[in-house]
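Continuing the series of single-chain predictions for the mutant panel. This is the parent chain; the variants come on the following pages.
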Amino acid sequence: MALALFAFLAFLPALASLPVTDRDEARFVQASRQMVESGDFVDIRFQNEPRYKKPVGIYWLQSAAVLVSGAGPEAPLWVYRLPSLAGAVLSVLLVAVTGTPLFGRQAALLAAAVFAGGLVIGGEARIAKTDAVLLATILAAQAVLARLYLHRIAGRGAAFAFWLAIAAGVLVKGPIGPMVPALTILTLVAIERRADWLRPLWSPWPILLALAVTLPWFVAITLRSEGAFWLGSVGADLLPKIASGQEGKGAPPGSYLLLLWLTFWPATPLLILALPAIWRSRRDPATRFCLAWAIPVWLVYEAIPTKLVHYTLPAFPALALLAVAHLPKGLATASRLVRGLATLAILPGLALGGAVVAFAATRDAWPAAGLALGGLAGAMLAAGFAIRSALGARPWALAAQAALAGAVLHAGLISAAARIPALWPTDAAISVANELAAAQGCDRPLVTGWGYSEPSLVWHGGRDTDLHPASAPASEAVRPGPCRVVIHARDAGSAALPLIRGCHQARSVTGFALGAGRWVTLDVLDCRGAP
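Parent structure:
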């Protein structure tokens, strides 16, 4: 219960205040909203286009959250984020469940708390997309595998739990969920040349139940889309990511290892201290299980050209368990070099905090700067206590203080980011559009995006938002009428549009479009048709 409360409190800040993020979250929540509006829980659509990149699981969960809330399709964004929050909290608990038979209850609980303090899981908990929920399904399967591998569980119950976790993962993100337990199994079988410990899984009824859970929707969407779902999910989404860096997200192998200093913080110093002890214990069954879990997954994602910061998240629980479980021996035997590296590993997380404070201050976002500074100060205080615990050879206190440092820092930084207007140009432009509509007595503006097609614009403007490329002529993109607002994008610093008949420029906002990865200026045009 204490662990669940810690995770919930770590993930709760900014859940409601963080604006919708481009591009994935905005697409997910808009498609879920349209699912609720239409009552069609088979097909997946973003505006009038099919969205056949991921299976239906996350859309069902988000739709269920909306229906339970009673607020209808116009439920606030945080309602759509509840499945991610629940998936993240459940993932933290499942780290402890997985780690207990491997390393004991105390080490498992502390490893779960350290994991909860991480940047990536903290971000995924607050964003309405697949990855936090997917991680929970992966960890449920890994918890069963760990017990089977150590001969701590047997019988049909283990098989039902494993295969239902696999089925849930398939419904959320296709083959990505089963990939982690599959790689773990293949690695252990290849190393030990035995697979007898897997025998309890080969039970027909659990497998049939898993198929009964997954197949109906896949059959239905195949028939409904006439096979287009498979072309979209496999041909247009999965294979291009494997073949090349999709959507400009390519990076060379080794990129995730370099990012580990930030993405795995505050556990990075603990992992460095524990590395020698992990190496010495590599033949221990518990250590071998976690290595067979983390290393293959890591290598697969390093090899894939498309690099997104959250891809390696399924390896982090294994790394956290290894780091905390071997921390006592590692701390007791660490050389001066290892201690020095571990001390240096404290700096990247704190440097990130300082960077957010500086950025918020340069953008005159002083409330955000205050939040970031508070998170940084709390993290520095906890890090100071952690260093003291390391010097006093108190590994469990060190792990707990590291977890607290991460949770406090990341809660402060994400809360600060939510309050920096320069990061959310869509919200700033929509705020102007709402003012213009209200002045005409309209409930909401009729929004046109011209040269600005970020999904966040559709989330705010609704399903009927018109989107036109920058190359579209004014006669096509601008059709003046009551409540009509056009949001036109241009590069920051470039000249504004010439006057357009029936429109006048109400205001311009400049910000960093996260989805596009560039600074833009959005001209908000009042196109009510008045002279």
